[in-house]
Specification:
This protein has 586 residues and is mainly β. The protein is 2% helix and 56% strand. Strands 11, 12, 14, 15, 17, 18, 19, 20, 21, 22, 23, 24 and 25 form a 13-stranded mixed β-sheet that branches. A five-stranded mixed β-sheet has the order 2-9-8-5-6, with no helix packed on it. It is elongated, with a radius of gyration of 55 Å. The N and C termini lie far apart (124 Å).
């Protein structure tokens, strides 16, 4: 930095500092390809189509870039004629005057890139691409992943690979996805402009079936390319989209190209057998398709058993069943997969993973020991019979009977089960009004008076049996009862008369309910009577009627004694009290 001093300060003007940079470093020329060769595949070219040039300089100030072909100045986008060993010079100068020159030689290259390997990388689908002289063929069957992961390896004899494309898309890291329903060409290009174009063709199996045995049973296919078989020999039949040869080993390649045929797999060993089939089309493109054969001789087996009665787990020491059904859950294992599970007189409920659930109605079980047969069959026909043992004592439901109803209690009775086990009863009482109370009481006896109920209220009663060595739930039928109103509707005397008959004096009494719809169930009417001393005595009971009459006779003196007669006359002026009482059944 230099200070500039002027004598006349009035002319001093503020300016930015001036900087002088000393630069002795040459520019750097980088090219792709990076060596001193420019590979071309034509006689007349544009240099920019075959060479990428990148210039860097510490001052970032490039004055010029010039291209000389055999000492003749050219433009990079100019079409020029080249020959083998033509000399290309790239000259660069920065503003500090530093220059750099890179000399490269033109070399003709008409050789296409090489596709070194093709690998299908799907997890459950193994395919080898063996020969792709004309095109890449990939075998594919229904059920395989339709999106194939492809990895390729390439090289070029002279120059490097410039680009790999699948269709119009650049392929990163030499990996791309092939949709089997929308296949495109693979295009590999080097820096000389040579292109290798490979057609990809999916050979689809319209049919790929394995059968074995005299009855030609089908082979079960558990996963994409895993098959389960019950014999050491099987027949493979196929139908494909184009003519091919198919064989199992390289020593027997078949005689003709066909779309439909069959081959035989022999000498399978028990357990896992890794196999592959070779496929070749009429242009000698070749691939191999892998699959696994499981030769399975073992039938399925029950790994775990769970028996439930009313969602309560059954154990060997439990004997009582009370619900309408039992539930059996079986965890079943087999390498080939489960074909069927058969339990006589049962209902299939569902399957969760390898757990099968069945239901057996109580009517299909007997008192005592029940031997339940379970037949297991795998996908290839191996079967086994298992026996489940369940001890059963069947009990019908409890019948609850209401014996007595009052305004404050209800008396209940129910039939006890005829089983040889210790048990208790639990009574459930629920008031059928909002916010009603619930009673849950454990009882020993089979009759019970439920106290502390509300007057004139509806209740629901239910009894449950509980016991030792017990499974299931025994509930009574539900009884709904309404307690009695503590205050019955009043009754009135409608008439009180006196009359004489054979010199006897009678009272004739009549009465009725005020409301004939009174809910009380009266068992009788009772008449009480007293004289002046007001000591009541029951004189009779009348049957239940809504309107009744009753005659009451005053006892008379049966002799002619004047004193007695006098007393009789005195009695004629007596005051009598009558009381009518209605009693209901409570």
């Amino acid at each position: 930095t230099y200070d500039i001093i002027l004598e006349n300060e009035s002319h001093i003007k503020k300016e930015d500092d001036a900087k002088i940079i000393f630069d002795t470093e040459k520019p750097v020329i980088e090219t792709i390809p990076s060596d001193n060769k420019v590979y071309v595949n034509l006689d007349n070219i544009k240099i920019e189509n075959y060479l990428e040039v990148n210039i860097t300089d510490n001052s970032e100030k490039i004055k010029y870039i010039k291209y000389y072909l055999d000492n003749i100045l050219i433009e990079p986008d100019e079409i020029v004629e080249v020959r083998d060993n033509s000399v290309l010079e790239i000259k660069v100068e920065d503003y500090a005057g530093n220059t750099e020159t890179k000399v490269m030689y033109i070399e003709k290259d008409t050789v296409k890139p090489v596709l070194h390997s093709v690998i299908v990388n799907n997890t459950f689908q193994k395919v080898d691409i063996l020969n792709w002289d004309n095109k890449i063929i990939i075998p594919h069957k229904n059920g395989d992943d339709k999106n194939l992961k492809i990895h390729i390896e390439t090289y070029d004899e002279k120059t490097a690979i410039k680009s790999v494309k699948y269709g119009d898309e650049i392929v990163p890291n030499n990996e791309f996805i092939v949709d089997v329903d929308d296949v495109k060409d693979l295009i590999i290009e080097d820096y000389a402009g040579n292109k290798l174009i490979k057609e990809i063709e999916i050979i689809k199996f319209n049919e790929l079936n394995f059968k074995y045995g005299a009855n030609m049973n089908g082979v079960y296919n558990l996963n994409v390319n895993e098959y389960y078989i019950g014999a050491a020999t099987c027949n493979l039949s196929y139908n494909v989209t184009k003519k091919i040869k198919m064989w199992l080993d390289t020593t027997n390649m078949g005689d003709e190209y066909i779309k439909e045929g069959s081959i035989q797999l022999k000498h399978l060993t028990e357990g896992i057998n890794e196999k592959k089939i070779y496929i070749e089309d009429e242009e000698n493109n070749r691939a191999a398709y892998y699959f696994t054969m499981y030769y399975d001789l073992e039938p399925p087996y029950i790994d775990k058993t769970e028996i439930l009665i009313d969602d309560i787990k059954y154990y060997d020491n439990m004997h009582i069943i009370t619900s309408d059904k039992i539930t059996i859950k079986l965890a079943i294992d087999d390498v080939s997969g489960i074909g069927s599970v058969e339990i006589p007189n049962s209902i299939f409920v569902g399957k969760d993973g390898n757990v099968y659930t069945y239901r057996i109605n109580k009517d299909n079980l007997t008192d005592g020991t029940n031997l339940i047969s379970v037949t297991l069959t795998d996908k290839i026909g191996n079967n086994r019979e298992e026996i489940l043992k369940i001890n059963i004592t069947k009990i019908d439901g409890i019948n609850i009977i209401v014996k007595e109803v009052s305004e404050r209690f209800v008396r209940l009775y129910w039939n006890p089960p005829l089983v040889n086990h210790k048990y208790t009863y639990r009574i459930y009482v629920e008031e059928l009004v909002p916010n009603g109370d619930k009673f849950n009481r454990v009882l020993e006896q089979n009759d019970y008076i439920v106290w502390d109920l509300n007057d004139n209220t509806s209740y629901q009663f239910k009894v449950k049996l509980e016991g030792e060595e017990f499974i299931g739930e025994i509930y009574s039928n539900t009884e709904i009862v309404k307690t009695i109103n503590a205050t019955p509707i009043k009754i009135n005397f409608t008439d009180i008369k006196t009359y004489t008959k054979n010199e006897d004096i009678y009272f004739k009494l009549s009465w009725e309910k005020i409301d004939p719809l009174d809910e009380h169930d009266f068992s009788n009417y009772e008449i009480s009577v007293s004289e002046d001393d007001k000591v009541y005595k029951v004189v009779t009971k009348i049957t239940n009627k809504e309107v009744c009459e009753f005659d009451y006779m005053i006892p008379r003196v049966k002799n002619s004694d004047p004193a007695a007669l006098y007393e009789y006359v005195k009695n004629d002026n007596k005051l009598y009290y009558f009381k009518l009482k209605a009693e209901d059944k409570g």
